[in-house]
Write a structure and sequence with these properties.
The complex is a heterodimer of chains A (279) and B (275). Chain A has 279 residues and is mainly α. Chain A has a single domain, classed as MetI-like (MetI-like fold). In chain A, helix 7 packs across helix 8. Chain A is flat, with a radius of gyration of 26 Å. Chain B has two domains: 185 residues, Rossmann fold; 65 residues, no CATH class. Helices cover 35% and strands 23% of the residues of chain B. In chain B, helix 4 packs antiparallel against helix 5, helix 5 runs parallel beside helix 6 and helix 7 crosses helix 8. The radius of gyration of chain B is 19 Å and the shape is globular. The chains are: A mainly alpha (279), B alpha/beta (275). The interface between A and B is medium-sized, with 23 and 25 residues.
Amino acid sequence: MTQTQTRPETGEAVLPATALDRRPSFVARNRTVLLGLLGAFVVLLAWQLSVWAELVDPKFSSSPFGAVEGLKYLNDSGLLWQPTLDTLQSVGLGMLISMAIGIPLGLVIGRSVVLHGLLEPLIGIMYSVPFVVFLPIIIFWFGIDGTARLVIVVWSALFPLLINVISGARNLDGNYLQVSRVFCAGPLRTLWSVALPGTMPYILAGLRQAVGRALVGAIVAELFMGTSGLGYVVQTETANFQLDHSMAAIAVIAVIAVVLTRGVAWLENRLTFWSASVG
Amino acid sequence: MAGSGGRDRAVKLAVRDVRIGYRERRNGRFFAAVQNLSFEIKDNEFIAIVGPSGCGKTTFLSAVAGLIEIASGSLELNGHAIQGPGPDRSLVFQQHSLFPWRTVTANVGFGLEAQGRLDEHGRRRVSDLIELVGLNGKEGKYPRELSGGMSQRVNLARALATDPDLLLLDEPFAALDAQTREVMQEELTRVWQADSASGGKTALFITHDVPEAVYLADRVLVFSASPGRLVESVDIDLPRPRDPGVKRSKEFAELNDHVLGLVMQQAAISRGGAR
């Protein structure tokens, strides 16, 4: 190898580098994904094998194949698409409300020393206390209809978003604000053109956390006070000892969770490509 | 456009008995960064301010930009007291002031956009300036894709875009490596001479690099050690347009030595005071 690498200025022949180029194999390129799939496959196989070997009772444990049949059952009996839509609707609506409140409020609190001093401890406490403990109180206030479910989702999603936006606004580079002042940008222009894009990495990190918690909030609300949604399906099917159906519904929830967090990660790449520190 | 030929020109910036400082938070004592500062800048003059570090030159520039208030005295631009930032001034920042989420074009256009002037004419001005500072083909690049020298070209173009009456430059080349700095000094003289038909805008340039000041300016103001005041105003009678060759001339060396001597003297005082 070292023999063939000669300096260009000496005029000696250099072996064309393309001769040594080799496209990485399919396995090397997709190693992470393949290992993840393999791990899932091994666990599912062990599960199915222990059912077939009658080590566990499928009435209690369900099984991968049973869950696939359960999915068919849910689809045939109208317990798949409508509940999924219901759950997605609470998550989506809750996220919209959380963003509409959290992003502007976070920017304002983060830029105001007084507001930050007043509210930061409260927001920190609200973020730390598990939101499910407020469930009975929220039921007491709002009943068990759609409004109450939405309140739970917003309650769970708002605080991680708010905390991230506040810290983003506080860490906003002073140079950017000075540029804005020197060129006589008004407060609204500064907020829209400087503060908002400047905190975008933090906003999206907050959204990533918030969307996960919103899904938890929606499912918890459906489990305890729902009349629809995937959480309600899991609740009722388990109560009827239909573990296969429950497992199928849980698998759908898992897919939703992955799609939502991956979606926000994709958005992060799209919107904050300019930031070197995107993790 | 000889440097000292501006005796009959209108006064652009009048500085009279200016004192700038801040009150210490703990004991309320006033600390002056600039004191008893008086001088005038004529229309179309290129002024460089040099002085030992900590002499309040950047503080003074911030006051002219309208970012901080003066404690006493008067600071007048075109006969009107400076109260806050205005579209008649723009500032070339030291570094890290480009918006990383904006392309080169959008960064250059920011000032016009903020002042509601990014119309057809404004957009043409932006693309003209990008060409003038030599960034053709880089219009769609983002700041992280630019070198330090290119970033400062964008910074300069952004400041020129609003067509300010007075251009303020706060050590714009301090963070660049020596070669890039030389190139940028040349570029600045070229751009400054090319941008306006009247032979350059009025400019106020802060630096701690004495040869840079002598090469660029019509007049070099030497600031004293802290609190800053004017020690001497040195006319730079080198002919324009200047090329880098002028730095090897005898006149340049003499002016450079003179200014450097003044700055070193002040630096010695400021070291003595600190001891």
